[in-house]
């Protein structure tokens, strides 16, 4: 049996960094589902798709997302840093509420996680994508802490942003993600919640590794 680790939480809670490090420590696959929503968000925005449209299937039929060796490819082309911009994040949150987008990506994610040792992170991994995951984690942190992390990350990448704008976007994304009708951001009943506000990345990773070894001891 595979050991599947689901890590969920709001924007800026540390999911991506933590999940990647956990996967590296365990020597298993890592799936960034947030990147997949950013890919789709940018694709739909460039196509001029109206998020209020009853169907977005026609806009998605020519989009092929492949996952190979931890990397994403869109119609055969490697995905770059263009999906890491604040704009891409807002489009991801905007279009993620549409049922066609959820169905399109959930199907791909379920297939990727099927019978594989993997760390998958996002907002509905433990509740929708792999609800029977062997280990479920829900990371949280205050909006201010998450905004500060995101602000410094963007500054380091050369983006000119204001902390107040980043904080506002974090709060807006929280509202969009938690209030959407389909697969809203929520903690799975059996998930272990970890508040990362006052913890280092290493401390969070160590806590998750310990839990994984307790539940999947025969593999790690």
Poorly predicted ranges (pLDDT <50, ≥5 residues)? none
CATH evolutionary superfamily: P-loop containing nucleotide triphosphate hydrolases
Radius of gyration: 17 Å
Number of domains: 1
Counting DSSP H or I runs of 4 or more residues, the number of helices is 9
Order of helices and strands: EHEHHEEEHHEHEHHEH
Please give the alpha-carbon distance between the first and last residues: 13 Å
Question: If you consult CATH, what is the topology?
Answer: Rossmann fold
Mean pLDDT: 92
Number of E-type strands: 8
* CATH C-level label: Alpha Beta
Structural class: alpha/beta
In the sheet with the most strands, the strands line up as: 2-6-1-7-8
User: What is the CATH-assigned architecture?
Assistant: 3-Layer(aba) Sandwich
Sheet of most strands: 5 strands, parallel
**Percent helix among the residues?**
40-55%
Written description of the protein model:
The structure is a single chain. This protein is α/β, with parallel strands linked by helices and 220 residues long. The protein has a single domain, classed as P-loop containing nucleotide triphosphate hydrolases (Rossmann fold, 3-Layer(aba) Sandwich). The chain contains 9 helices and 8 strands. It has helices at 15-26, 33-47, 57-60, 86-96, 99-113, 125-129, 143-156, 163-179, 201-215; strands spanning 4-8, 29-32, 65-68, 71-74, 77-78, 118-122, 135-140, 192-195. α2 crosses α4 (86-96), α4 runs parallel beside α8 (163-179) and α7 crosses α8. The protein is globular and about 50 Å long. The two termini are 13 Å apart. The model has no long low-confidence stretch (mean pLDDT 92).
